Task: structure prediction
Amino acid sequence: MKVERLNSIILKNSKNATLSIANLKEPYGIGSDDVLSLAICLKESKVDWKIHIPYDNLDELIIALEQIKEKRQ
Result:
């Protein structure tokens, strides 16, 4: 598995927490599809939570997040 870091976001109202965004190449073995990995690090680089999103579901995730954002405004 190869990790390509794409972005990092400092989380508001936290001391050092970050959301790291990366592409994982063949995360489940040779021939498996790449996934988008979202990882929360509350302190430095120690991963506390992690999820993998198949790229085929990325548009659905973006729509869901946009709907949530609209409801919160």
The first helix runs from residue 58 to 72. Helices lie at 58-72.
